[in-house]
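FAQ: What does a ligand-bound record look like?

Like this one, built around flavin mononucleotide:
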Amino acid sequence: MPSGGYEGIVDADPKHLAVLLAGEPVADLAAAADRGAGEAIALARAGTPGEVISEISLSRLRGRGGGGFPTGRKWAGIRDAGPGRRFAVCNAAEGEPGTFKDRALLRHDPYQVLEGLAVAVAAVGAEAAYVATKASYAQEADRLRVAIAETTAAGWFGDVPVTLVLGPDEYLFGEEKGLLEVIEGRDPLPRLFPPFQHGLFATDITTGWEATDPAGAPGLANPTLVNNVETLANVPHILRRGAEWFRTLGTDGSPGSVVATVTGDVARPLVVEVEMGVPVGELIELAGGPRPGRQVQAVLSGVANGVLTAPMLGLRLDYEELAAAGSGLGSAGFVVYDDSACPVEVARAFSRFLYVESCGQCRSCKFGCGEITRGLEALTAGTGTERDVEVIGARLRSVTDQVRCYLATEEQIVISSMLQRFPEEFVLHLEGRCSKEQARPIEAPKIVDIVDGVVTWDDKQPRKQPDWTYADPP
Ligand SMILES: Cc1cc2nc3c(=O)[nH]c(=O)nc-3n(C[C@H](O)[C@H](O)[C@H](O)COP(=O)(O)O)c2cc1C
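The answer part, i.e. the structure of the complex:
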């Protein structure tokens, strides 16, 4: 069993919750069965799909892929959508910068994820299931390959085939409309309609100009369920221990645990499972807090939510509480910047990541992210003018016009929040100055691995070009 890279990344403090990351990594299906794996499938088969969905709804589980969408409502929507085949997909693409939790979960116990998928298959009536991860996540792909073979042989999926799909490194591979494209053998260019309206192998002409209907039969939208690794991992525990047990954990609106990643300017980066409701500052302390003599200046939850500043660290891990403060939980990948980091440089790095990863199908997104990045590059280079700031402001307003996915909204939210929270830093840069004595270069925090408190960052990402090619190493 692969274990390298896992040790030491999970918090061992007993006061912090361990449900999904409990105990030692699970070696094989027999070891998983010793912990109760398979019981949730038996329970699901003993009940009706409606009963299973109702239990998940009662638990108030929310999707851990970033959006926090209520899982029970999503499952019911897929089951009840119009005519067509049904498919279920586990999103294991984990592309959000600052996030490593899905890989930690897959290394720890892929069986609970597959059991959640098997329950979902039964609940929505899927005829095939897919697990999509990155080809470059070799360790997780190996674990999944073995676990899929073991669990299908054990009858977990009945006669429903489960396919492991290995996709590209692009950020948009994790976006659910891009993910379905990759499963169908194309590039991760998000389609127009969401998976419940334009599912896998759809033949409904209303769902996109690429849809075909070779048989000449009435078109079918094939509503498709897409759930994140951590969302599915929660499912067997909810069925075994009950929705009520789940709701005793966390907060009213955000029950359960959350598997958080804490990296950046902290003493000991880690992946840790905590109860929802833990304050962000406490989570940062679990990672050893800021380095000696330093203070937390900015915390970003992936590249999708408004920045948190030091006075906001009392906010709790709760979807509503963070959203009300202009931020969000996202996929709980918290990247900490201490007071030695230049906020304008942080904004530039995040904007460049989104510009490079934008697929270019929507002009306002690619063009807007590009212009904002160029403006921020001028500011950090000390050559920025009032005109650059005007352009940044204008593009932040228009970047989301007529777009087909949420990437442009991420640009709008993150960069606007940096401008709002650190206005004086931007003004200083207009004068060619910086408040930090020796501002260090910042890159988008794309994680390759975390071992014993040491993060390996993706050193290819800074060379990635807006057309998704890579510049030669210097
Ligand atoms: C640009 C972008 C990238 C995304 N990347 C991921 C990802 O890597 N993994 C993931 O689970 N969800 C990702 N999502 C969210 C998915 O589109 C989708 O909402 C999620 O898989 C649904 O699962 P859930 O309901 O269990 O959260 C991304 C969304 C966007 C807009």
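Follow-up question: can I read anything off the structure? Yes, for example: Residues 1-12 have pLDDT under 50 and may be disordered.
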